[in-house]
Amino acid sequence: MGDKRQVKNRRYFDYLLLFIVLFLLGFGLVMIYSTSSYVSSLNYDGDGLYFLRKQAIAVVLGLAVMTVVSFIPTELYKKLAPLIYFVSLASLFLVLTGLGHESHGARRWIYIFGLSIQPAEIAKIGVIITSATLIDRMTPNSRRSWSGILVTLAPAALLSGVIYFLTDNFSSAFIVGGIAFMMITLSEKKNLRPYIILVGVAIIGVIAFIALVKFPDKLHLGFRGERVLAWLNPEAYADGKGFQPIQSLYGIGSGGIWGKGLGKSMQKLGFLPEAHNDMIFSIICEELGLFGGLAIIVMFILMLWRIRDISSHITNTYENLLLCGVFTHIAMQVILNIAVVTNTIPNTGIALPFISYGGSSVIFLLAEMGIVMRIARDCDFKDAPPVKKKRRMKEEETHEES
Amino acid sequence: MKKALARKRANARGISTRLGVFFIVVLLAFVGLSFRLFAITRDNKNEYRQKVLSQQSYDSKVINAKRGEILDCNGNVLAASEERYNVILDTKQIRQSDEQKGSSDVRNASVDAVCTIFGTDRKTLTDYMDSNPDSQYYVVKKDVTYEEMSRFLPYITVPEAGQEKDSLYNANVKGVWFEKYYVRYYPQKTLACDLIGFSKSEGQASYGLEEYYNDILTGTSGRKYGYLSDETTVEVTTIPAVDGNTLVTTIDTNVQMIVEKHLKNFCEEYKNNYREGLGANNVGCIVMRADSGEILAMASYPTYDLNDTMNISHLYTDEQIKQMEADGTLKDAYDKLWKNFCITDTYEPGSVMKPFTVAMGLESGKMNGSESYYCGGFLQVADHKIYCHGRKAEGNLTVKEAVAKSCNVALMQMAAQIGKETFLDYQNIFNLGLKTNVDLAGESRTDGLVFNEKSMNETELATASFGQGFNVTMIQMAAGYAALVNGGYYYEPHVVSKILSPSGSVVKNIEPRLIKQIVSSSTSEKIIEYCNAVVTDGTGWRAKPAGYSIGGKTGTAETVPRDNGEYVVSFMCHAPADDPEIICYVVVDRPNVREQDDAKYSSIISRQILTEILPYLNIPMTEEVSDKEREELLALELSIYTNRVEKEDAEADASANNPEGDN
User: Fold this and answer.
1) Best CA proximity match to B175, nearest among B101, B102, B111, B121
2) Distance of alpha carbon B513 from alpha carbon B590, whole angstroms
3) What is the CA radius of gyration of chain A?
4) Phi and psi at residue A197, in whole multiples of 5°?
5) Where are the domains of chain A?
6) Which helix (H) or strand (E) is A329 found in, with range?
7) With the CA atoms of A344, A346, A350 and A353 taken in that order, what torsion angle do they form, in degrees rounded to the nearest 10?
8) B66/B573 Cα distance (integer angstroms)
9) Which candidate in A298, A364, B381, B400 could, as Cys together with A121 as Cys, close a disulfide (CB 3.0–4.6 Å)?
10) DSSP state for residue A352 in the 8-state scheme
11) Chain-chain contact of B33 with A342 (C-beta, under 8 angstroms)
């Protein structure tokens, strides 16, 4: 009976999700061309297409990867999980070798076959698969126990630590940790213990923050400390660490409601650093206005809704956990990026998924979307007609408790 | 089995439910961020728009215009502008290019190229690049000529197909660019320095033609800038620079050189002669065309190099310069050197005034030219005994003799005849006390330095008749005298004859400007006759150049304070004698001799100048040349023509020899 249903459901394909992904990718390419053409023609002998070309290649490559991944059964990841984890970890150490490459003052890239890859992006997909595999093997009780939580978080913490200390990349380390944390938290109902960890981390953060603000001279927190101070008062640090945030705000503010029009940004003309990269959202707001910025946010909300909706039709815990991981990854990265661009949180280098320039980011994100699309084929609509869904779920949960 | 499946399914649904809750949390975060976006736009829209626009204005860049040239009447360049370049290094671009490639090829190649071509110290350059990684504007070398700059171009010029082998082109050479500007240079260096003036920076000029015609010479700088259109988009616009116009002057470089040579010779000859210092406080000379006011030469001594205006080492020792610096007179010394003696300095003209006084008498009808005056050596005027020059009693003199012998007593009697009113009227008619409006910067106002109704009494009228008691400039006297001898037509003296556009087309022709007729042609003829007598039978005999007859008037004026033996001696003349074409006026301010009151110093200079320039200006010789003069001319001609004669001889020899060789 199970086989029969599977065959039937294979026909389901989430066209809306595919449309959103393609829309964001296409929009991203347009915006990358808009934001980078001026700077790249200055730096690459008049070649205004330099960044667009590189990104377009990465997008094509990523779509191929997505297509292939969307046919790989998720069961395979369970078997490959240790290998994937090892590859994630090892690739991070490769930045120390001759393959490593320094840029923007940090050593975060490796060169393989002429491709520059950011291992932190591998680690993000790696931590999703590893954590899902670990949690899936546990019983509901052990998921709630300290040992179970530690077993899930330890590998992620190792990856996170390596990313932070080896490649000096706080935001990626934070996201890797956050993905694992959300996956274990969502895996079981009334799983409160992870929140204790969350509260602990929050308290340490608040203490560090207060200390930094009170005694900015005594604490030597390096550029991160300065970024926090610049966040509190960007105008005062406008020539240093506050330059990028304040230029970003100028971009958003000057766009108004409808924007200056596509391609008509002024901030991209060398004033806003990383305009085609981490700060692309600011230029979107400048050129397309508040309307354009909100439209992009709506697209991401739609994408997250699709992932969550797929998960509601999935009966497989492992697949559901994978969906949680992808969901968390995209949600965190979008929220953090927009929060940085609007100077809501201190500045940290974080890319806007599917839109920002960055080959490895887009390829591995598309790989994750491939996983989501593979899972979407397993959707069981017969079992859960939308109208009755809520009641049925309640029934089942009570059933489970009893 | 079925229960386990259901349980598993339920667990999966539970995850989905919790993910739904998380989705709501995420949604709230998005709502918060959306509000933040909205708040930024709402609260700071205008402020941030202004900030963005104010940052944008840095994009504006000036494109320098080329200052127009100054040419002499034959097209020789007196002043021109030359392209120069600053070599600029963009460290940031080099660093970024290297980072993108992950090497230091760009840095090495760029530094190599710069050091090879411009001889920069490699270490200085690399040290700077290390300590200023974000610098985009570092002047590696200033004042680079086009030739030097163009040797760098092969490095950054993509070679044409088929020529790649020989090319120095290196794609890694980046971040080096050239900032173009113009420098003024004066190929003739000291020639006509006072007349030309100098321009040190774009649009700024001091003295002479450079200052007077600054607006015409200065082009309009171009600008490359981004401006905001109505839709707040940046439009990058380039307004090209419009180069300045060129001046064609009436100055003849050869005449100017001859004049300057003789002024210099005089000053060298009498240097440290009687007192420490130059041959005279100042020597000036104006050569102009009598019937158009065109100035052919205008010079004074000492001169300075227009390319190196601050250099006064040819006039002062280092100690003197230091001393002047200490007591603050260095500025005055520069001003004295840079100003144009011929139009700026005022002095009492002395006896050169006499033809003017006679012309007043004749023109006003107070005299008819047939009068005779008795000279007893002095004349009692009011309370003063005013002596004749040399205190010598000349006896009875006709008007002509009075001028020729430069008799003060006769002139004072004429002035008394003319009267104060008429004298003052004619002073005005002759433009004394008024600017001539010569097209040069720095002409003095002399309206306070001449007599007026109140300041002129009997004594003043008497002394004014022979040019004492009031001040003039050289250009006033020359322009006035030119009118006296050209039939009475007063032309505005001028230096520029044409203004050309940068492409060479004529923008404006400046024709001789006739201001007024100051005397009738009959009076003019009489003045010519009297002045000719000065040279043939009178005080100016030393000025006669070999082969020509000229007319003129000597001048010896005592300076203020009187009786200290200091004089300004001068000689004004016209040539040829009967039909004046050229006016030449030489003034020697306090010659460096014991007895200064002798006009021979100026007459001799005049003679030397005329001897050379009259043949050059193709004015035919009319007089017989004595043996002595022939010798002199021969000596002069030899020095001029020796080379040509030798050359001709050599050619003749060669043509004579060739046929023999063939045989």
Assistant:
1) B111
2) 34
3) 22
4) -60, -45
5) 1-70+240-314+343-402, 81-220
6) helix A317-341
7) -10
8) 41
9) A364
10) P
11) yes
Handedness of CA B653, B658, B659, B663 (dihedral sign): positive
Separation between Cα atoms, residue A348 and residue A172, nearest integer Å: 10
Extract the tokens encoding B188.
């003739």
> Using one digit for the tens of pLDDT, what is the confidence trace for A300-357?
999 999 999 999 888 889 999 999 999 999 999 999 999 999 988 888 889 999 999 9
Does the structure show a pLDDT above 80 at B276? yes
Are the Cβ atoms of A186 and B49 closer than 8 angstroms? no
Among candidate residues A209, A151, A219, the one with its CA nearest the CA of residue A184? A151
Pairing type for strands B246-249 and B70-71 reads parallel
Contact A353, A330 (CB under 8 A): yes
Tally of CB atoms within 10 A around B186: 24
CA angle A152, A158, A162 (to 5 degrees): 150
Cα distance between residue A257 and residue A266, in whole Å: 16
Interface of B with A in 82-121 (CB under 8 A): 93, 96-97, 99-100, 102
Instruction: Calculate ∠ Cα A310-A314-A319, nearest 5°.
Output: 95
Q: Could you give the CA distance from residue B10 to residue A140 in angstroms, rounded to a whole number?
A: 12
Quote ipTM for the complex. Answer: 0.90
CA separation for the pair A131, A333 (Å, rounded): 18
Angle between helices A146-167 and A119-137 (to 10 degrees): 170
d(CA A217, CA A109): 33
Helix (H, G, I), strand (E, B) or coil at A5: helix
CA angle A400, A401, B5 (to 5 degrees): 15
- From B79, B214, B208, B71, select the one nearest B500 (Cα to Cα): B71
**What's the pLDDT tens digit per position in B457-515?**
888 999 999 999 999 999 999 999 999 999 999 999 999 999 999 888 999 999 999 99
User: What is the separation, in whole angstroms, between the first and last Cα of chain B?
Assistant: 134
Between CA A374 and CA B341 the distance in angstroms is 98
End-to-end distance of chain A based on CA atoms, in angstroms? 27
Nearest to B93 by CA among A40, A230, A194, A47: A40
| Closest by CA position to B576, among listed B620, B636, B543 | B620
A308 neighbourhood in chain B, CB within 8 Å:
16, 19-20, 23
Range with top average pLDDT, A215-219, B360-364, B636-640: B360-364
Q: By CA distance, what is A50's nearest residue in B?
A: B100
Q: What is the mean pLDDT of residues B388-416?
A: 88
Distance from CA of B134 to the nearest CA of A (A): 13
Q: B395 forms bridges with which residues in the sheet?
A: B375
Write out the DSSP string of B520-577. Answer: -HHHHHHHHHHHHHHHHHSTTGGGPPTT---EEEEEEEEPSSTTSS-EEEEEEEEESS
Task: Provide the CA A85 distance to its chain's centre, in angstroms.
Answer: 18
Helix H or strand E encompassing A345:
none
**Average pLDDT, stretch A141-168?**
89
B13, A312: Cβ pair inside 8 Å? yes
